[in-house]
Every structure is written in structure tokens, then in C-alpha cells.
Amino acid sequence: MTITGFEDVEEMLNKLANPYEMAEKAVNKAAPIVEKNLKTQIRSAANRRDKYGKPYSTGELEASIVATNARDNSLGVFAVVKPNGTDKNGLRNAEKMGYLEYGVRSHGQEPRPVRAAAVAQSENAVMQVMEEVIGAEVDKL
Asked: Is the pTM here over 0.85, yes or no?
């Protein structure tokens, strides 16, 4: 795309009347990266045995992680990657995520922060994918 004068700039900006639509496409394309990395972090943190030698993880928390579709609010466009539902005993997966993230002192469970690690692990790939999507959308103009 070449811009030669103010009219071209004005025309391009008019085509960008709804930048949220472009941002939603970028966020929807990037959210699965964070979802995959969060699942990897959970698997890594929970893949251990308790003091009796029994496996600590059933894999239910990892399997419950989902990314929502992008939506927007007053702060901008976002998607949420979160645990969803309950396990076979009725315990909410979000609650289990909290136990994993912050630990349970009374049970001797150390904190294993997985969210920050997943975000850090995802950052470069997410930025690259979002730049590609937005660049492709701008090139269509």
C-alpha cells in the first residue's frame, strides 16, 4: 500500500472505522498459543507424586483449560484463558487452579505459579501472530 496524500490517509482511516474487528481477529488467533502454554505449565507443575507415592495430577485441570472468543470492553479487546467446569468430585477447576498457583499451607502444598510462566512463555509468539494478522488486515485496505 502506498500513501501519496492526505486523501489517501483519510480513505485508509475511514476503512479502519471498526478497528475492534481487526483486533478481535488478532486476539482470537493468538489465544490458542496462551492456552497451549498454560496447559503445558500445568502439566509440568502437577506432574509429580504425593507423599504416599500416588500421582498428584489426574489431568482434569489441564483438560479444562479453554480460551474464550475475543470480546471488547472499555479497556480494549481481550480473550480469557481459564479453567472451566468441575472435576468428577464437584470441585471447581478454577479452585484447583488457585490451589496449584498459590499452594495450600495447611496441606504442605507449595505454590507453583503457572499463569505468569505461561504468559511469559507466550509473549513473543503472541506478539508475532498478532502483528501478522493486523499487518494482513491493513494490507487488505
From this structure: no
